[in-house]
Every structure is written in C-alpha cells, then in structure tokens.
Amino acid sequence: MAQIQLTPAQRKDYRAAAHHLDPVVMIGGDGLTAAVRNEADLALNAHGLIKVRVFSDDRAARETMFQALADELSAAPIQHIGKLLVLWRPTPAKEKVLDEDRMPGPRDFKVLKYSKRGGQRPEVKTLRVLGNQRLTAGGQVKRSKPKQISVKKRSQT
Asked: For the domain 8-88, what is the CATH superfamily, name and number?
C-alpha cells in the first residue's frame, strides 16, 4: 500500500492538531511487530490522527519504523520528532443504521423542585419524559403540540 501525500500546509495543520494528543500506540523493544501494526491500524480507524511513541534510542531505526508504518497502513507521515511519530489517515465513513419502526424512547431528567414553604430545601426529582412530551422551564411535563401548518398549506390540501 502507498502512503498518502499531503501538501506542506495540510501537514502543518495536522501537526498543530496533534500537538495536544497523547500517544495511543507504544512500540517497545521488540520493534514493529504485527500486534503493533494492528493496534496502529485500529487507532487510525478510530481517531484518524494518532501519536506513536517508540522506546528505541536508534534514530535510524525509528525513521524506518515511521516509513514502514506509513506505507503498510496507507497513512500520511506527519511528523517525527524525538521518539514520537505522528500519522494521519482519513477515518472511514460509518454506516448509520436506520430503523423505521424505532420511536424515541423515554428520557429521564433531574429537576430541582423548590418548596412552596420558604425555609425548605429544594428537592431533586427525576422526571420521565416520553417521546410525545416536553419539559417546561418550570419543571412541568407537558404534551408536545402538533406542528402548526400555515394557512396557505392548509388551503392546498
């Protein structure tokens, strides 16, 4: 597999985005094993932009690992600084499963209810709101109103 080629501007943007990331894959003394490749592949599928930490003092070995990971995982090599490697690959589109029979289920809300008497503590109540209901600002559960139709649309039907 070939690695992705990026422009310097794109590489700069990904370097900036990776600055605050923590390493998600660690390469130990055994080097670049199949398990490490698998973990890096899973991390790239999940995150897209990852940092890899290499526990090796040999810079040339780290550079070859960096290029090998980029080639084998068809990722773009973003940065190699010290013992950290940054790789990027676009995340695959997730298939969204739609079930036409599915209706929105009940939701539970925690509401702070104040007492009518002055010195009492407010009480936390859990209210269950069904799919055809809404919660008002005062903490009341009301039935949702049907969507209003304009006069023009009513006359067309």
From this structure: YhbY-like (3.30.110.60)
